Amino acid sequence: MPSVPAIIGDFSVLPVTVPPLPSFPKNVVHYLYVRRNNPKIPTATDARSLFLTNVPVDSTEVHLRALFASLVGAGRFESATFEDERKDAHSQSHSPIDVAHPAHVARPQQAHSKKRKREDEEVERARGEEAATRLPSTWTRPLRRSGSTAVVLLADEKSVEQVLKAIAKTHKTKKYPTWGDDNLPQGKVSPLGSVWLKAHNRLSYPDRQRLQASVDAFSALFARREQEAAEIAKRLRNEPDEDGFVTVTRGGRAAPASRTEAEEAKRKMLEKQEKKKEELTNFYRFQLRERKKAEQAELLKKFEDDRRKLEALRVKRGKFVPES
């Protein structure tokens, strides 16, 4: 087997032995590329995390835990986040909380806590409704995209150093860690192969009652959101914009709007409300500024009038000739 460099760029090369399988009865060495995690947007855990690329397609957190335990021992590995999981987490966002009006800042703390509790309950209720609309999964275990990445979180910064040193040591000793389900605890990871495909075939035909419940939940949630969007759009149609015009959308002012139009209308309405809040906040400051400008203009006008009167007196005085 040709020698592989221990370091390529910023990455340390970690060779992993893949044992033979019935479908491919040969020993294979798979190469993972490991470096310190340095994302574009820094986080508090970057110093004790590692970035992995070219992870095997059957990777799970249990696989990586066993791999790092074989390198530096147990207790160093905390968690792993794969590429598809990071994208899903990034797409989820919480709705921002509206800033309280200055007149309501002095409300009791208990009212704030109750409002926050209600908001949390609404968020949890919305998540539960969305979870009920999802169709049952047809796979018992996901497979990663070829060449995908993962971020491994370790116990501390010292563990990161130990892992990188252990990777360098594997190139000297030629004793590579082994990858595969044979080294994992029984029951931790669902099997692949024919068992995995048979389970997929069975799950592709879910229970009729469970499937009907998911469809009913989705239909109810979709209808409610459509109704809310139509009400927002209808209310916005009757409100003039900052220039005094009323927006007429497709189908006339009385016809229901599409969901896209309603979301756009909601965004404009929220922007308008924020602008009104800002105008109310700066109202008295604007009034004071305008009054000062008027006073300055009045003083300048009086100054110019006095200057013209003095100039007229000087001219009249120059033309005066006393009698001899």
UniProtKB/TrEMBL annotation:
One of its GO terms (cellular component) is UTP-C complex. CDD domains: dRRM_Rrp7p, RRP7_Rrp7p. Residues 203-322 form the Ribosomal RNA-processing protein 7 C-terminal domain. InterPro entries: RRM_Rrp7, RRP7, RRP7_C. Residues 83-141, 243-273 are annotated as: Disordered. Residues 118-132, 260-273 have a biased composition (Basic and acidic residues). Coiled coil: none annotated. It comes from the Eukaryota. Pfam families: RRM_Rrp7 (PF17799), RRP7 (PF12923). GO terms for biological process: ribosomal small subunit assembly; rRNA processing. Residues 10-199 form the Rrp7 RRM-like N-terminal domain. Belongs to the RRP7 family. This is Ribosomal RNA-processing protein 7.
